[in-house]
Amino acid sequence: MANEQSGRLVRLLNLLPYVSRHQDKTLMEIARDLNMDVAEVRDDLDRLHLSGVGRGPGEMFDLAHTWRGVTVLDDQGLNAPLRLKPTEAHALLLLLESLETLPGLVNVDAVRSAADKIRAVTNTAGVTDVDQIVANTPVAATIAAAIAEGRKLQLRYYSATSDQLTQRTVSPIAVLQRDEQTYLRALEGDTQKTFRFDRIREIEVSEEAVDERAVHAAADVDEPFAFDDGNVAHFKVRGDALWMAEYWELELELTPDEADQPPEWVDATLRYGSDDWLARFCLAHADRLRLVAPEDLAVKVRERACRAADALR
């Protein structure tokens, strides 16, 4: 318990100076940069608000946060981070390693000592690199073994698109990172597909050799889901539900004047891969958004909503 409280205190004291310097970042961007969950960031900001060294005026932190960002009114002078972000730690380590190769220009012993200290903590929670997290999971280890041995994988996978558990046999291509999630890109039949690590229920290496096409296939790191040429849905989103953009890749069409006081309905777009998934998404959030296009799918969603309402009468 003491270690948990100490760890949270360090996290809080690291969060405040970061948001003070990056008040234009959303909660999702802050969570990504500090290797935290959005819920953790929100809870920590709530805890920081009006806490401090005392209870009187001028003795407490003062801040406010929304889905758009954080406004820090009083940081009580706490404006220096206690820990480095992962990218900062590895960038600093890279610089120190380059300085080690320049004897005579710097104190090499001091540079090596600093580099060793950074290497010693790069596996701790403060500066963990995403690749180190992935490498320690059983799923990742099994996938790595299959790729190294040139074998297919057998998966029991939960598909959010169809809301079903299915058995798959795939030829692994690569492991990719996207928005704090880790994915397997693999060939199933003639189609490249993407499988999210946390939805893989069971996995084992098959005796069957990998499909030769997977060996020579290239996974698009920038667009692993192949949505560049995919379908785009157009919505009307309620002005008080714009927080949805923190959880789904909704592109809100807001003017600078509307950012502080959104209108009742805001236009938005979202790339999607399955009509079934989009229909379920719209029905699940029917009180917050309206599907405008594709028009034929919008009609089907309205019909399903009406049937559901009739069934409840």
From TrEMBL:
Highest rank taxon of the organism: Bacteria
Residues annotated as domain WYL: 139-205
UniProt-listed PROSITE patterns: WYL
One Pfam family in the UniProt entry: WCX
Cross-referenced InterPro entries: CBASS_pafABC_assoc_protein (IPR051534), PafC-like (IPR028349), PafC_HTH (IPR043839), WCX_dom (IPR057727), WYL_dom (IPR026881)
PafC HTH domain mapped to chain residues: 8-120
Positions of the WCX domain: 260-308
Protein name: Predicted transcriptional regulator
Species of origin: Corynebacterium imitans
